[in-house]
């Protein structure tokens, strides 16, 4: 039975990845959360699942993190911030802590094979994937998520400097809550929009493929037409741009609708 660790398991992407993994009884999941109470309130069925164990800890809790990722085939790194928060560093914290936990596992079990890291990122970081987007829309996107992208970029630089660690980057376009429309993996283009469930199915396919996609930037795109449009995008852009140009406003507007 293959075991997978999911960090950020209370989040939308992390939760969707777990739902996808649970579709096969041949997979076991170690779900890492800051609060297992929150995890099981969001997903009551998971508490009794024989295929899921929960680990409670922060990203600073290296011992618990090492326990959670020990013996896994892949670690889905889904702890993230969805808001353009000035100075956000969740991606960097997650990257540094996972690397520390892997180093700890090397000491604990020198012969053990270490897991591959499946890192949630964004196509906005990858000019090759976004070259079909209208230039103005891309320009706005880069600024509306500037603090998130800076964090993701630095986290990736840090992880890629460790060439002893297996890692793959998942870089989707805009995400939306929708039913499944099937998925494809692409190294050529992103598609906005993609449902969270289709993203999760793509991430699991990448993880199950082992080393095949090592070090690559993979976008997941819908396999068929019809993914819902997220009509909240203009609002997301407006709020993100306001924070980009006037970061001091963040404490006052962060409680606006997500
Ligand atoms: N939305 C899009 O259109 C889009 C497009 C492309 C890529 N993305 C990627 O998706 C990410 C957003 O993912 P999402 O929608 O799943 O976000 P989300 O629903 O807000 O989930 C974030 C997860 O990260 C955890 N987390 C946040 N801060 C943490 C911290 N300091 N320490 C430990 N855990 C922490 C949260 O835990 P708690 O529950 O404890 O807070 C939660 O589990 C973006 O940053 C970007 O990388 C999004």
Q: Can you tell me about this structure?
A:
This protein is an alpha/beta fold. Helix 3 packs across helix 4 and helix 4 packs parallel to helix 6. Bound molecules: NADP nicotinamide-adenine-dinucleotide phosphate (NAP).
Termini separation comes to 38 Å
The helix content, as a percent range, equals 25-40%
Strand order of the largest sheet: 3-2-1-4-5-6-10-8
CATH class category name: Alpha Beta
The count of β-strands is: 10
Shape: globular
Average predicted local confidence, pLDDT:
97
CATH superfamily: NAD(P)-binding Rossmann-like Domain
Topology:
Blueprint (H helix, E strand, L loop, with lengths): L1 E6 L4 H10 L5 E7 L2 H7 L9 E5 L5 H8 L4 E4 L12 H19 L7 E5 L14 H10 L1 H15 L6 E4 L4 E2 L6 E4 L7 E2 H13 L8 E6 L10 H13 L4 H4 L5
Parallel strand pairs: 1-2, 1-4, 2-3, 4-5, 5-6, 6-10, 7-9
Antiparallel strand pairs: 8-10
Helix pairs in contact: 1-7, 3-4, 4-6, 5-8
Pfam family, one: NAD_binding_10
Protein name: NAD(P)-binding domain-containing protein
Family: Belongs to the avfA family.
Keywords:
single chain, 258 residues, Rossmann fold, eight-stranded mixed β-sheet, two-stranded parallel ribbon, 10 strands, globular
Outline of the structure:
With about 260 residues, this protein is of the alpha/beta class.
């Amino acid at each position: 039975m293959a075991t997978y660790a999911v960090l950020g398991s209370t989040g939308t992407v992390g939760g969707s990845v777990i739902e996808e993994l649970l579709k096969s009884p041949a997979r076991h999941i170690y779900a890492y959360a800051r609060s297992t109470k929150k995890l099981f309130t969001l997903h009551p069925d998971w508490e009794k699942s024989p295929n899921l164990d929960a680990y409670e800890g922060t990203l600073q809790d290296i011992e618990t993190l090492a326990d959670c990722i020990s013996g896994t085939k892949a670690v889905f790194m889904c702890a993230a911030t969805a808001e353009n928060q000035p100075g956000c560093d969740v991606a960097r914290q997650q990257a540094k802590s996972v690397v520390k936990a892997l180093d700890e596992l090397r000491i604990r079990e020198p012969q053990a094979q270490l897991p591959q890291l499946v890192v949630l990122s964004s196509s906005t970081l990858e000019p090759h994937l976004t070259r079909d987007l209208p230039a103005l829309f891309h320009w706005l996107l880069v600024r509306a998520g500037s603090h998130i992208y800076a964090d993701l970029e630095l986290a990736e630089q840090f992880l890629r400097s460790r060439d002893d660690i297996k890692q793959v980057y998942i870089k989707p376009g805009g995400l939306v809550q929708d039913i499944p429309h099937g998925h494809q993996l692409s190294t050529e283009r992103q598609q906005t929009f993609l449902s969270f469930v289709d993203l999760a199915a793509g991430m699991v396919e990448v993880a199950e493929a082992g080393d095949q996609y090592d070090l690559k930037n993979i976008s997941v795109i819908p396999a068929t037409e019809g993914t819902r449009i997220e009509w909240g995008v203009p609002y997301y852009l407006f709020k993100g741009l306001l924070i980009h140009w006037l970061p001091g406003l963040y404490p006052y507007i962060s409680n606006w609708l997500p």
